[in-house]
Amino acid sequence: MKTVFTYELDGNLYINLTNKCTNACTFCIRNEYDGIGGYDLWLSREPSAEEIIAEITDLKAYSEFVFCGYGEPTERFDELKKVAKYIKDQGGTTRLNTNGHGNIINKRDIVPEMKGLIDIVSVSLNAGNEAEYDRVSQPSFKGAFEAVKEFIRECAQTLPKTVATVVAVPGDPLDIDAARELAAELGAEFRVRIYE
Predict the structure, then answer these.
(1) pLDDT for the residue numbered 1
(2) Strand partners for 96
């Protein structure tokens, strides 16, 4: 498998900015595989915004441009913004798949900076309460669940579309209904991702 900065799946172009992540989710595909769809997503180095842009040769070929790789994209928020601006300037649709820790990682409120750059935010809510969140997500800092909830709430108020997600893992006693209710309280859409 070739290590890639961008990769195509299901009509979308995915952008792999980093392997850094502030969670160690129990269900994470990184625990089992080096990549997906024949792509190696473990990076030997992190790409520049210019390198990512150079790989985007046909914006009309993709439904969405998705910031999602083998790490948390907001770890490289400045590069993310540069690439997103290029895509939006060309009329593309952008989506950010995130663990919701971006404000903590960047030590500031990044949501206003995403306005006009990110069309859809998909946030890994992962649970309906803090105890379950900590068990499933294994965050690297305390207070992560509250930070994620606040991030979702603000995204829902600021950006065109915000989706909170959980992963349904066979045999895991996660209370999906509680997570669904919480997503609604936060103003977000809700989606259950199936563990593969």
Answers:
(1) 55
(2) 67, 121
The domain spans of the chain are: 6-194
Query: Kind of pairing, strands 12-15 and 6-9?
Result: antiparallel
Assigned token pair, 13? 């172009």
Give 47's DSSP letter: P
> What contacts 91, CB < 8 A, 6 or more positions away?
59
The helix (run of H) or strand (run of E) holding residue 66 is strand 65-67
CA-CA distance, 22 to 103, in Å (whole number)?
12
Q: Is the pTM of this model over 0.85?
A: yes
Who has greater pLDDT, 135 or 1?
Answer: 135
Structural class in CATH, domain 6-194: alpha beta
**From the CB of residue 17, how many other CB atoms can be counted at a distance below 10 Å?**
27
* Distance between CA atoms of residues 39 and 55, nearest Å: 15
With a cut of 80, say whether residue 2 has pLDDT above it: no
- Nearest to residue 126, comparing CAs of 145, 140, 142, 107? 145
Mean pLDDT of 101-105: 98
